[in-house]
Amino acid sequence: xxxxxxxxxxxxxxxxxxxxxxxxxxxxxxxxxxxxxxxxxxxxxxxxxxxxxxxxxxxxxxxxxxxxxxxxxxxxxxxxxxxxxxxxxxxxxxxxxxxxxxxxxxxxxxxxxxxxxxxxxxxxxxxxxxxxxxxxxxxxxxxxxxxxxxxxxxxxxxxxxxxxxxxxxxxxxxxxxx
Length: 178
What we know:
The chain is built from 6 helices and 7 strands.
């Protein structure tokens, strides 16, 4: 997986994914109801101006460069060095094959090693087993729950120290295999 800053060429797939009722439900959202033209206009002007503390990346396959999903770091609080994070694999052909976990691990590495963040937080629907498995596999630990719009969310976090320990453990396991 390769993470790229979002670009206009990502908009058609984003639009399809955002209109998808099943994908929206997995994120506790409603499907997008606006036209593609309006979406493109918002895509071009929206996130950077409205959310200067937000970085959004497209997830692309290495071999074909196929855009299969998105991930983000947002609500960045530079004073406390923490942020929210999230991911969606919109292309169902890539579900349950580890692509989301690989991409999210790359995003986490970027957040801690390049941005200097010390904690990442997220929330996921309690009923979204695929997302919970991905986040746990990336080292996130439950830190509470939240009831929003009739849905129960699991709140999870990953501290820099736990990230360093997990990377060290993984590196040691890889060395032992060779």
